[in-house]
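Title: Prediction job returns without error message
Component: structure pipeline
Severity: low
Priority: P3
Assignee: unassigned

Description:
Job completed but the reporter wants confirmation the result is attached to the right record. Sequence as submitted:
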Amino acid sequence: METKNNGPRIIISGGGTGGHIFPAVSIANAIKELRPDAEILFVGAEGRMEMQRVPDAGYKIIGLPVAGFDRKSLWKNFAVIIKLLRSQWKARRILKEFSPQVAVGVGGYASGPTLKAEGMMGVPTLIQEQNSYAGVTNKLLAQKACKICVAYDGMEKFFPADKIIMTGNPVRQNLLANKQSREEAVSSFGFNPEKKTILILGGSLGARTINQTLIAVLDTIKVNGDIQFIWQTGKIYIQQVKDAITTATGEAIRNPRISAIPNLYVTDFIKDMASAYAAADLVISRAGAGSISEFCLLNKPVILVPSPNVAEDHQTKNALALVDKKAAIYVKDVDAMKHLIPVALETVTDAEKLKTLSENIAKLALPDSATIIAKEVLKLINNDK
């Protein structure tokens, strides 16, 4: 693996979901802005989303044969351990060939073996912990990490206080650069700017409970014609959602706009998230740390439905950190089928409530996170700790 110049050589490792990938790319872009001569190599997990999204962003990536532990079926973890050992061996080989001067871990399957190998080989490391409750991998890696960038107060209960830097979570730069008005954004989805719009986010892969809840209330959506719905299902659930709409309306779904339910727009993935956010008067979402950082920076009123299927129930802790400051509405996953849409319809028509949520969530925003982290990464190369 040849290096092209004498610029800083940096490895960024992690991924698995959009919540890990988008911040990682933002950090890489910020490093490139500060040091255009930097060589950046991503290390991800084979078969995961980063193997497509990182090259799309213009960076090289190498995949490790790593997988997460199966918490429900322990006997399957023998294969996981074999993959982990193979990944650590491959990570060491990558490091010897690329000779990084610093490594950044953003969480996800590949972060563990990569940063462990780098720590063993004396490469300085920086960890970016997105959540209010630290993950197992980052807690283990923290022992040898030089710096730990966090987005929530109180993280010294997980990490050494002298290593912690409050930076916030990096977000997609194009979201903040968007100058589109709400009216233009709503119109871009074929909707009426004079009507309220709710954006439902299933995440990059999908959120089962949110999608099943929307499927169950298609009639409610249709009769509330003064409220418009932009529904991103995630790729796993798009066909199930289309089939349900066809069953309910008799319409074969070929386009995002639904003739039988004219106030509904359905898609598996929204490429132009800047327009989607600009159009939204209210957002319904899981409580991933990256998404929450975007809502804060964009001052978006949000109803959070934390996923129960995440390590250490960290999404609930993320949500409660906002609820405690009256900056978001929280609906439990088990209550979503009954309460989510009634709460959403009530909130989106309450101008005072929307204003209060927007003002309170804006107070939690930490701007320029990617640039702050990028500067810390480059300091490690110069041994300026």
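Comment from assignee: result matches the submitted record. The chain has a mean pLDDT of 89.
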